[in-house]
C-alpha cells in the first residue's frame, strides 16, 4: 500500500493513496498520523491494507490526490539517520575537495545523525538565505523502521523495515568543509530534507526489492534536464539491513526511524567515475559529483550549484514507467527576511 | 513551574510537580504530553501555571511525586542538539587523546546532532553491551525551545527558551576516536541520553538565570563520591542564546528542540585544568576530564571509566540547598542478550 500525510497541523493527516497516485482516502479512523500508525504498526497495518484494497476497488469514497497538498510522509520524525552506502559517491566528492578516503569506508558504514524536526513536503520550496552557501540536492532512497533492538543482527534487521520512500537530502556544500573539519558532523550544512509524496510498503516494490536494496533507477532532474539515472540497487556497498544494524549497535531505534541510503551513485562499466548524461553516461544524483567529474575530465567545474529559481525533480518509475513514490519537485527560493516562528508558516508565506 | 513526564506509553503523561518535588498533579486536561504542551505553549503555559499555583496552595488533589516513576521530560524528542560551550572541556579531552584544538573553537561553537528517539528516564539503568566501550557520563544543562525562526538573531534567541533541565549525555569513549575520524560526527559513541526528573520554567531559577546561562554548581557523583561541582555559569564560552542562533543559522527549529550546554567544566583560578575534588579542586562533570588531568598530573590514568554496577548521580541545588530538577540517578547494567523491540521494554526487563 501507499501512504501519505496531507498538510495539517504539525504532523499532517494520514491518507491511503491509490497505486496510480490519483486518489486518496482519509485514514484518520485507523491512525490520525503516520507516526501514530508506526507506533502500533502490527495493529494499524492490516487495517490500512484493507482500506487500500477498498480504495483500489472503488468500494470507499475517495478524493483526488495532489502531491502539492502533501507534507513529508513523516512531517517531523524522532530520528533521521543517513548512511553513505554508495561509497563511489563519497570517494568522488572527497576527491573533488582534495581529501582522500580511508580504505575502511568500504567495510565500516558512514552514517550521520540528521535533523528531523521539520522536514519539507515534496513540493515545498527550499528557502535559502545565501546563494553562496552552495545549495545541492542529494537524491536517495530511505526506509522507515519499526522499533529495532539494540545489537540487532544484520540478518534480522531487514524484517524491521516498514516503509520505503525517496528523499532529497538538501546540502549546503560551501558549509560542509568547515563543519566536518570540526569533527562533530553535519548541522548547518544539512538544513531540512524533503521527501517523496508517498511512502510505500515493500510489497509495492515487488521483485525490485531484493536483499534489502531497491533495484531501480533513481531519476534526478535540474531545470527539466536529466541529471542522472543511477540504479539504486547497484554499487550500494551496504544494504539497508546492514545500515540498520550499524545504527543499532549501541542503542535501540524507535518506530519511525528513517534510514537513508546516501546519494545514489554508480560507477561507469570500466570502474571510472560515471560520465554526465550529456556525454552518454548515467549521470549523478547530486551536483557535487557532476562538478567533481567536470573537474576531473575538463580541469575545471563548469556547472556549479543551485541558484534562486532553479527547479529540481526526483522520481523513481516501475517497470511499466509509472511513478512509484510520486515526485519530489522543489524550487529554490530566497528565505524571507522576516521568517517567523516555524518553517510551515514561512513556507506558506514564501509560496504566496 | 516544574513539569515532568510519568512513564506511560511512548510519550509519558504530563504532570505538574510542586517546587519541593514532593507532590504532583495530573495535567492531562491541559496537555496529555510534554510535547503537546510545547506544541501550543502560549495557550498551555498559563493554564499549567495556574495548576502549579493550585498545587502549591493545596487547592487541588495531588499524589506523591517519585523520580523513579519518571521518563525523561521529553521521553522522545524531535531534536537534540548538544553544544560544547565549555571549551575548557573540549581542550582537555582532546589533549588526553593527543589531539590539538583549533583556535576557532573559541569563536565558532561546536555542536552535534544527537539521537533523540528514545531518551532514558532519570532512574533508568544504562544498558551496556560491552564494558570495554569506555562508558562515561557527561553532566550538562539543557534548555527546551519553542519554534525558532531560521536566521534568528542571538539577541532574540533567548526569548525562545521555554524550559531548563539537566542531562547526562552518555558517551562511549572508546568508540569516539574512530567515529570522529570518519568525519560524520557521533552516532554509535553517543547512545541514549538521560534527563533530570523535572524540567522547569526559567522563572523557577530566579536570579541564577542570567544572560541565558544558569549560574549554579552542577554536582556529579560516582558511587556516592563527589566527582565535581563546577559552576555552569562560569567558563561557558557560548551562552544558550548563542547556541540556539548557531543551530538556527540555516534552518528553523521546531518546538521541543533540546539544546545542551556540553559538559560543564571550569578552569582552576590560575587557568590550569581544575584539580580533582580529592585534591581540593572543584573536579569534573565527566570521567574523561578526570582521566586527562590524572595523566597530566601523574603521568598515567588511575581511575578509568564506568563499570557494571557503578552508580552515577547528577543534581543541582538552589541557594537554600534544595534540589531544583531532582537527581539523575543511574546504575550501569549489562544489556540483556535478548533485548526485544524497544528500549522501554528492555529497561523494564533489566530492572526486574
UniProtKB/TrEMBL annotation, chains A, B:
Tell me the GO molecular function terms.
catalytic activity
Residue ranges constituting the Fumarylacetoacetase N-terminal domain according to the UniProt record:
1-76
Domain Fumarylacetoacetase-like C-terminal, residue spans: 81-332
The record's annotation in InterPro entries points to: FAA_hydro_N, Fumarylacetoacetase-like_C, Fumarylacetoacetase_C_sf
Q: Which SUPFAM superfamilies match?
A: FAH
Protein name as annotated: 2-keto-4-pentenoate hydratase
What species is this protein from? Answer: Methylocystis heyeri
Amino acid at each position: 500500500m501507499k501512504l501519505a500525510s496531507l498538510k495539517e497541523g504539525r504532523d499532517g493527516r494520514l491518507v491511503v493513496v491509490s497505486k496510480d497516485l490519483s486518489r486518496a482516502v482519509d485514514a484518520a479512523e485507523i491512525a490520525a498520523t503516520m507516526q501514530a500508525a508506526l507506533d502500533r504498526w502490527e495493529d494499524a497495518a492490516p487495517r490500512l491494507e484493507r482500506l487500500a484494497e477498498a480504495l483500489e476497488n472503488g468500494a470507499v469514497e475517495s478524493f483526488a490526490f495532489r502531491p502539492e497538498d502533501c507534507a513529508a510522509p513523516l512531517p517531523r520524525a524522532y530520528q533521521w539517520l543517513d548512511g553513505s552506502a554508495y561509497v563511489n559517491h563519497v570517494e568522488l566528492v572527497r576527491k573533488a575537495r582534495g581529501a582522500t578516503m580511508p580504505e575502511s569506508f568500504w567495510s565500516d558504514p558512514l552514517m550521520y545523525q540528521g535533523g528531523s524536526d521539520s522536514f519539507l513536503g515534496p513540493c515545498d520550496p527550499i528557502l535559502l538565505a545565501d546563494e553562496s552557501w552552495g545549495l545541492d540536492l542529494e537524491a536517495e532512497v530511505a526506509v522507515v523502521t519499526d522499533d529495532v533492538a539494540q545489537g540487532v543482527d544484520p540478518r534480522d534487521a531487514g524484517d524491521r523495515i516498514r516503509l520505503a520512500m525517496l528523499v532529497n537530502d538538501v546540502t549546503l556544500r560551501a558549509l560542509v568543509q568547515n563543519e566536518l573539519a570540526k569533527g562533530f558532523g553535519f548541522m548547518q550544512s544539512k538544513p531540512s530534507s524533503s521527501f517523496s509524496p508517498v511512502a510505500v510498503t515493500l510489497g509495492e516494490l515487488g521483485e525490485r526489492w531484493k536483499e534489502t536494496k531497491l533495484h531501480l533507477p533513481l531519476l534526478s532532474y535540474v531545470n527539466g534536464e536529466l541529471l542522472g539515472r543511477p540504479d539504486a540497487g547497484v554499487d550500494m556497498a551496504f544494504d539497508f539491513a546492514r545500515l540498520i544494524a550499524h545504527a543499532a549497535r549501541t542503542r535501540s531505534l524507535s518506530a519511525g526511524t528513517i534510514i537513508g541510503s546516501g546519494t545514489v551513485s554508480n560507477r561507469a562499466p570500466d570502474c571510472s567515475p560515471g560520465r554526465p548524461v550529456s556525454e552518454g553516461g548515467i549521470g549523478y544524483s547530486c551536483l557535487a559529483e557532476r562538478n567533481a567529474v567536470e573537474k576531473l575530465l575538463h580541469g575545471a567545474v563548469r556547472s556549479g550549484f543551485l541558484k534562486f529559481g532553479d527547479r529540481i525533480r526526483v522520481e523513481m518509475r516501475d517497470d511499466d514507467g509509472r511513478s512509484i513514490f510520486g515526485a519530489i519537485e522543489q524550487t529554490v527560493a530566497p528565505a524571507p527576511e522576516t521568517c517567523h516562528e516555524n518553517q510551515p508558516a514561512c513556507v506558506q508565506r514564501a509560496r504566496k
